[in-house]
């Protein structure tokens, strides 16, 4: 059914249609609307046979999820930013134990400085946790990916994060097609766990494993992600058969066939990039876009195939690996190894900084001219940075950096865009 | 062959052999049908109080749950000594997740059971969570308090040996004052652990007004079984705190585990009581009061108190703490004295 609704509510409806059995919730912006929506649906009886638990921390949220998933219940939670860091130990534990929990990450920056707006640093901080990580481009895709995520998680017995841009998607009202219960039931069978805490067949889960088997257990986690690499496109196909639309998959190419410049990105910024590409195509520029939907497992072959005929690649990422540059770029470069390609890393949109078509167009044109540097911070205010560097060079007690820089920017509240 | 005299009572104690009891009063552990939930062959130290406490507690819980029980376990001695896989000692469904999240994992298990029961996919399965004092009073405290506050249907059992014994005997918030640990060495002007306000978790559990809170020791195994059975007869959040001497961490002889647990109770150092909805409903009275020295001097962790010049003041402070417990919980039967 077509609906004009908020991204968070669309996701809440999708999760509800997946017949979850345990949902644990802890508030953190910008994922709050999702669990609020689910809480209301469970309390109001719209979602039957489901326990909604208000926990006391994100660490508890993931821990409750571990307990319920290990007892065979289809389990869901949502978090963002500091929340994912606070639950990090349990995030690794959930995947280590092979528990197919599905979690929405409403992507948000990580402090300090504290910042509630969007970038991808939170999810990417858990890139090696063993979770499958899918990134949604639109609210429709966010909705669809949740339905696929439960199936994927339960097939490979691994947890899945569905990442959607905080505020940009979670709080945006857009038209979405909400499937029927019959459609979702046809796609998603009831959860059949591989392991379960059951008095009828007692098992020990989470025992200590020493050097004699630890590598093998960890390799198995990798092998399962490689299985997911095969399964994700199949699920997208199957999804299309049942729901009649394309959603998910590993990567999505846009005008890449003859492109000399290919921009690689994840999430909602792909929309802005495509608009910019359309403009530049109209002006005769051979430019295309590669969107990464599956960040973990990382589709090396698919990325390589899409990029191999280009001359240059611009990885535009909403994340920063402090001390080296890009996070996504590192993985893209791995896929590019051996290809004669010029690679650029562009760090953009940190902490909610708007990524505009104007900036992108100038950036891509510079890349096409061969003038773009190896690492670029899009729309960085060099005056503010240089002023602070100068302050620190000349004054020992230069004070708290973020506060000084905010003062230099000249507004009290953080400026968006 | 030398003559083996028959004792019905353990010397100097009020412990009576099961054979002298009516059938219905005998322990679960004495029954042929006991489940051996924590089976033999595990790697606990000789004289481990925790292994003994866990064996009695979980078998009693299994008996009360008619064999339908799931256990969540914190990281720590109990987890490590029971499961270097494939040699798990657990005969029941058992999960270890992390050090600090056991109460929350148990909440998740209870939630899943509730839903599965509604759907007719599972019977009435019960949940216990267990951990040591570090995993309970320190790192797991947030999750524990959350579980209490929500009144989730979980029995949490804390095996308190007063320190992080698994990592090499470091101080926890349950380490008693003056005790030596690897991080509170008996050096300097105030040797051993500092005298603080204390963190007596049973009292904090009571402040949550949960259905049931009890303390027990491995010297009173009948009492321990009675409390576990009683707790299992209730719903909601329940907490049992068991004092389990640790020969390694306390620097005590392996054969003194039960004696030390008894002395902890008989000196008033560890009050044994039960409480419902935040109010004390019963105490195990001291039957033959002992001075705290009798308890302290058997343990090398207090050896610095009994040097060439005994630390009279420190011992007096510890005696005062025991006396306070006696007053606060009414541990002495006035008539008996």
What does this structure look like?
- The complex is a heterodimer of chains A (417) and B (337).
- By secondary structure, chain A is of the alpha/beta class.
- Chain A folds into three domains: 2-243, Thiamin diphosphate (ThDP)-binding fold, Pyr/PP domains (Rossmann fold, 3-Layer(aba) Sandwich), CATH 3.40.50; 251-377, Rossmann fold (3-Layer(aba) Sandwich); 385-416, no CATH class.
- Chain A has helices at residues 7-17, 32-43, 58-70, 81-86, 88-96, 121-124, 139-156, 181-187, 214-243, 269-282, 300-307, 328-336, 357-368, 382-394, 401-409, and strands at 2-6, 22-25, 51-54, 75-79, 102-107, 132-135, 160-165, 173-177, 204-205, 251-254, 261-265, 287-292, 294-296, 312-317, 342-347, 375-377.
- Chain A has a seven-stranded mixed beta sheet with strand order 3-2-4-5-7-6-13, sandwiched between helices. A six-stranded mixed beta sheet of chain A has the order 10-12-11-14-15-16, with helices on both faces.
- The model of chain A has no long low-confidence stretch (mean pLDDT 96).
- Chain B has one domain (23-336): 3-Layer(aba) Sandwich (Rossmann fold), CATH 3.40.50.
- Helix content of chain B is 33%, strand content 12%.
- In chain B, helix 1 (49-64) runs parallel beside helix 7.
- Chain B is globular and about 70 Å long.
- The mean pLDDT of chain B is 94.
- The A-B interface holds A 21-22, 24, 49-51, 53-57, 59-60, 62-73, 75, 89-90, 93, 97, 197-199, 201-210 and B 67-70, 72-73, 79-80, 83-85, 88, 90-98, 100-101, 104-116, 118-119, 122, 125, 142-143, 145-146, 149-150.
- Chain B: This is Pyruvate ferredoxin oxidoreductase.
- Chain B: One of its GO terms (biological process) is small molecule metabolic process.
- Chain B: Residues 171-184 have a biased composition (Low complexity).
- Chain B: InterPro entries: PorB-like, THDP-binding, TPP_enzyme_TPP-bd.
């Amino acid at each position: 059914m077509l609906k004009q609704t908020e991204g968070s509510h669309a996701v809440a409806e999708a999760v509800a249609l997946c017949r979850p059995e345990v949902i644990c919730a802890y508030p953190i912006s910008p994922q709050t609307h999702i669990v609020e929506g689910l809480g209301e649906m469970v309390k109001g009886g719209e979602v039957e046979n489901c326990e909604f638990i208000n926990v006391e921390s994100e660490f508890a949220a993931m821990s409750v999820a571990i307990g319920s998933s290990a007892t065979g219940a289809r389990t869901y939670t949502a978090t963002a930013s500091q929340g994912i860091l606070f639950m990090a130990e349990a995030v690794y534990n959930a995947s280590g134990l092979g528990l197919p929990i599905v979690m929405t990450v409403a992507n948000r920056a990580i402090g300090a400085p504290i910042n509630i707006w969007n970038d991808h640093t939170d999810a990417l901080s858990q890139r090696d946790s063993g979770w499958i990580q899918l990134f949604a481009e639109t609210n429709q895709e966010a909705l669809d990916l949740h339905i696929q995520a439960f199936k994927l998680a339960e097939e490979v017995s691994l947890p899945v994060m569905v990442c959607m841009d905080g505020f940009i998607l979670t709080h945006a009202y857009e038209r979405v097609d909400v499937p029927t219960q019959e459609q979702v039931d046809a796609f998603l069978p009831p959860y059949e766990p591989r392991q379960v805490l059951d008095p009828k067949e007692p098992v020990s889960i989470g025992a200590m494993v020493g050097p004699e088997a630890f590598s093998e257990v960890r390799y198995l986690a990798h092998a399962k992600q490689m299985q997911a690499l095969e399964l994700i496109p199949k699920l997208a196909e199957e999804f299309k058969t049942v729901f009649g639309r394309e959603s998910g998959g590993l990567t999505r190419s846009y005008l890449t066939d003859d492109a000399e410049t290919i921009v690689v990105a994840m999430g909602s910024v792909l929309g802005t990039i495509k608009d910019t590409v359309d403009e530049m195509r109209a002006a005769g520029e051979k430019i295309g876009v590669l969107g990464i939907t599956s960040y973990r497992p990382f589709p090396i072959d698919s990325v390589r195939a899409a990029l191999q005929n280009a001359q240059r690649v611009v990885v535009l990422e909403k994340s920063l690996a402090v001390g080296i540059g890009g996070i996504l770029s590192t993985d893209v470069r791995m896929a590019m190894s051996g290809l004669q390609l010029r690679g650029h890393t562009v760090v953009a949109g940190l902490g909610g900084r708007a990524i505009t078509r104007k900036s992108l167009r100038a950036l891509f044109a510079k890349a096409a001219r061969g003038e773009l540097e190896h690492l670029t911070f899009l729309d960085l205010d060099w005056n503010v940075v240089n002023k602070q560097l100068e302050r620190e060079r000349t004054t020992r007690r230069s004070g708290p950096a973020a506060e000084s820089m905010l003062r230099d920017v000249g507004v009290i509240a953080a400026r968006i865009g | 062959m030398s003559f083996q005299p028959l004792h019905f009572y353990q010397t100097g104690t009020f412990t009576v052999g099961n054979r002298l009891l009516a059938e219905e009063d005998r322990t679960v552990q004495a029954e042929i049908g006991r489940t051996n939930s924590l089976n033999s062959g595990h790697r606990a130290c000789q004289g481990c109080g925790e292994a003994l406490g866990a064996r009695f507690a979980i078998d009693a819980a299994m008996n009360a749950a008619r064999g339908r029980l799931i256990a969540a376990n914190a990281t720590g001695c109990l987890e490590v000594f029971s499961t270097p896989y494939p040699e798990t000692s657990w005969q029941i469904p058992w999960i270890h997740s992390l050090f600090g999240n056991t109460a929350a994992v148990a909440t998740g298990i209870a939630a899943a059971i509730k839903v599965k029961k509604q759907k007719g996919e599972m019977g009435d399965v019960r949940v216990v969570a267990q951990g040591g004092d570090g995993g309970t009073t320190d790192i797991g405290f947030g999750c524990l308090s959350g579980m209490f506050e929500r009144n989730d249907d979980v029995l949490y059992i804390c095996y308190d040996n007063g320190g992080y014994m698994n990592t090499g005997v470091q101080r926890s918030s349950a380490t008693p004052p003056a005790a030596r640990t690897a991080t509170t060495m008996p050096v300097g002007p105030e040797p051993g652990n500092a005298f603080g306000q204390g963190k007596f978790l049973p009292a904090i559990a009571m402040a949550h007004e949960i259905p049931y809170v009890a303390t027990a020791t491995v010297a009173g195994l009948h009492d321990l079984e009675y409390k576990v059975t009683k707790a299992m007869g209730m719903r909601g959040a329940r907490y049992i705190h068991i004092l389990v001497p640790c020969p390694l961490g306390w620097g005590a002889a392996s054969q003194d585990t039960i004696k030390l647990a008894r002395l902890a109770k008989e000196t008033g150092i560890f009050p044994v009581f039960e409480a419902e909805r935040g109010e004390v409903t019963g105490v195990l009275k001291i039957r033959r009061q002992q001075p705290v020295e009798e308890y302290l001097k058997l343990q090398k962790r207090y050896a610095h108190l009994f040097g060439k010049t005994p630390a009279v003041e420190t011992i007096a402070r510890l005696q005062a703490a025991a006396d306070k417990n006696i007053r606060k919980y009414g541990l002495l039967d006035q008539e008996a004295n």
